[in-house]
Design goal:
single chain, alpha/beta, 7-stranded parallel beta sheet, 7 strands, binds 1,4-dihydronicotinamide adenine dinucleotide
């Protein structure tokens, strides 16, 4: 097989069992990386691992809850055991629990914060220790959202978590630059996945009406930005937020 830009590198993609995460895992594998995908559904993970293996790449699935410290530490350990190193982390696992602020339950606030924000912190801390020891730098890419930049009615919890993720991205970029670990965020707009399939038709139409490109994006279009940020061409980029949103937010 010919030389690929990410040959010899090892990536972890959380929430890689479907949607944007699965598309990211495929793009990184196409570029030559060995990929570890995590998620909660063992059967779905197995399917993604089989697809990645079909691309001729080494892949491994780990059932892990992004909000659990034990699971995050175990995920990084499993990656090191299987592939001896870790070079790229994509914090993609995310959930929504939408409700108007006035009716939002404490549990809905807490769970969205735990998975989207605490999970990214736990994974960042765990991989950073490994990357610092390796002394070969690294890339951390956080999947945030347009909602984190502009807010979204009915998503106070999600908007706060995704805005928090942007703050985490910038603080981590400053702290970790010393070890050549680059930290960036990608903020998708409206992308066709199971998450948006749950949107009521009216909300979807209202969003489409505001979209300059007049269409929903694909998971692959988000993955292309992550692929770029994981590669050598992005060596002078850290602490930035890249919007992939058809012009929804400028
Ligand atoms: P999805 O619902 O299709 O997939 C989410 C993935 O995260 C799944 O693989 C799921 O298993 C995993 N996941 C959820 N909770 C988890 C947990 N506790 N532990 C481990 N894995 C968990 O969602 P989609 O659309 O692919 O979203 C991926 C990321 O992109 C999320 O962070 C989401 O917030 C973000 N995003 C999505 C947009 C969209 O329009 N679809 C827009 C902006 C951001």
């Amino acid at each position: 097989m010919s030389h690929q830009p990410l040959d010899g590198r090892v990536a972890i993609v959380t929430g890689g069992s479907r949607g944007i995460g699965a598309a990211i895992a495929a793009a990184l594998a196409e570029d030559g990386a060995a990929v570890v995908v995590s998620g909660r559904d063992a059967a779905r993970l197995e399917r993604v691992v089989a697809e990645l293996t079909d691309l001729g790449r080494a892949a491994h699935g780990v059932v892990a809850d992004a909000a659990s410290r034990e699971d995050c530490d175990r995920l990084v350990e499993a990656t090191k055991q299987r592939f001896s190193r870790v070079d790229i982390l994509v914090n993609n696992a995310g959930i929504t629990r939408d409700e108007l602020l006035i009716r939002m339950k404490d549990e809905d606030w807490d769970r969205v914060m735990e998975v989207n924000l605490r999970g990214a912190f736990l994974m960042t801390r765990a991989v950073t220790k490994a990357m610092v020891r390796q002394k070969t730098g690294g890339r951390i890419i956080n999947i945030t959202s347009t909602a984190g930049a502009m807010g979204n009615a009915g998503q106070a919890n999600y908007s706060a978590a995704k805005a928090g993720l942007i703050g985490l991205t910038k603080a981590a970029a400053r702290e970790l630059a010393h070890w050549s670990i680059l930290v960036n965020a990608v903020a998708p707009g409206l992308i066709e996945t199971d998450m948006t399939a749950a949107l009521p038709a009216k909300a979807r139409e209202a969003l489409l009406a505001q979209l300059p490109l007049k269409r929903i994006g694909t998971a692959r279009e988000v993955a292309e930005m992550v692929r770029f940020l994981a590669g050598d061409g992005a060596a002078y980029i850290t602490g930035q937020v890249f919007h992939v949103n058809g012009g929804l937010y400028m």
